[in-house]
Design a protein that fits this description.
91 residues; mainly alpha
């Protein structure tokens, strides 16, 4: 059963993706591909799935590079959503 917290998290992830699309427009696909590669590399290094890798990257950026914009963090979350959607469509 899906609880309210899970729904809120999913909503925020999809909002991040929608905002990234609106801001990046034509550059969206290229930006997402680059960030998906970062997520995949992190997954390989840490032997974890995409969502924990994505959250760890965002957390690491917040700690180690506080100057990193919320926008860049939003783009990373959007890249995760695109990965998840691609995987879902392939299944």
């Amino acid at each position: 059963m899906i609880d309210a917290k899970t729904i809120r998290i999913a909503s925020r992830l999809y909002d991040a993706r929608d905002n990234a699309k609106a801001l990046l427009k034509r550059d969206f696909d290229a930006k997402m591909k680059g960030l998906q590669e970062v997520i995949r590399e992190f997954m390989a290094e840490r032997s974890c799935d995409a969502l924990p890798a994505t959250m760890a990257i965002v957390t690491q950026l917040q700690k180690e590079a506080p100057h990193t914009s919320k926008l860049e963090q939003t783009f990373i979350l959007a890249a995760y959503v695109e990965m998840a959607e691609t995987k879902k469509e392939a299944a």
